[in-house]
Amino acid sequence: IRSFLSLEDAGREDLREILDLARAHAEGRVGGTLAGKTVCLAFFEASTRTAVSFELAARRSGADVISLSEQGSAICKGESLVDTVVTLDSLGADALVLRHPAAGAAALASRHTSAPVINAGDGCGQHPTQALLDLYALSEAVGGFDELANRRVAVVGDVLHSRVARSVIPAFQKAGMEISLVAPRTLLPSDAGAWGLPVLPSVDDALDWGAEVLYALRLQKERMTGARIPSVGEYARYYGVSGRHLRGGALVMHPGPVNRGVEISGDVVLDAASLVPNQVAAGVAVRSAVLAVATGAVDRVAA
Ligand code: CP
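# phosphoric acid mono(formamide)ester complex -> structure
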């Protein structure tokens, strides 16, 4: 049994194994791994993709599913996260999937339950299952996990507020990819210099650098406390991905939800070069695999 708080401790082979298990789920070679288990989905911040795909994953794997949101739970009466987690533990949850607006919430929760905690996004912290499904979708598009090595990916946009960036950049690195950042200084974390990644001024420069994948991040206005960018128009001009950027064959990714016309133009979302639908579709298989590993059911699969 293990929690998924980040991918920090995962090695390259761990990533390969979980993607292989996800593929087995996608192809219907495993199922029913969570029969008799109870999965609690506690989403204290808005979600469509993550919440729905975790629910589908848990149900299709045979689990009983409990869904909890802030409204309608005792959180809105003032109960703390820790007391909520302790309560769910007492009620027999076998896994806790947690989305929360505060970075570190999943790690805190994991210290107060015997069940594995799966971080479904914690503020500006981490989003490990997003990174796993991104790896899955990209590896399927390029012909397999080993085909990712040495490919160049530009991570574009609001790195500062992005939990996705903090998970997907190490995941791409572990897969052997080369990474550059394309962002205004105002949307880079203060420690980004220590990451040792080239910082480029525009998507055009990223393509000149040799980016084969443009990974656009959502502009997270809800996490901005002041004016961080000159204007949305200027952001779109330098950091937005549009049709002309696809001429050289680059693939486009985005974790969603997309601000169309800002991070990616509407035609690009629908273009064959866009892996956005593939990323969403990968969510169920990848999260099925994560739930199986987290609850220890993967050992039964292997046996
Ligand atoms: N990518 C992502 O986490 O989307 P949701 O907020 O819809 O879950």
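# post-check
Residues 47-50, 121, 130, 255-257 surround phosphoric acid mono(formamide)ester (CB under 6 Å).
Residues 276-295 form the longest helix (20 residues).
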